[in-house]
């Protein structure tokens, strides 16, 4: 499930926004 994957990525590495994985780009555009 894509939403769960996005949640897992954000929850797994809150500071990882600096690296901006594709999941975080999707989250930011929603």
TrEMBL record:
<protein>
    <submittedName>
        <fullName>Uncharacterized protein</fullName>
    </submittedName>
</protein>
């Amino acid at each position: 499930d894509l939403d769960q994957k996005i949640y897992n990525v954000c929850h797994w590495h809150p500071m990882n926004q600096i690296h901006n994985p594709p999941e975080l780009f999707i989250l930011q555009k929603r």
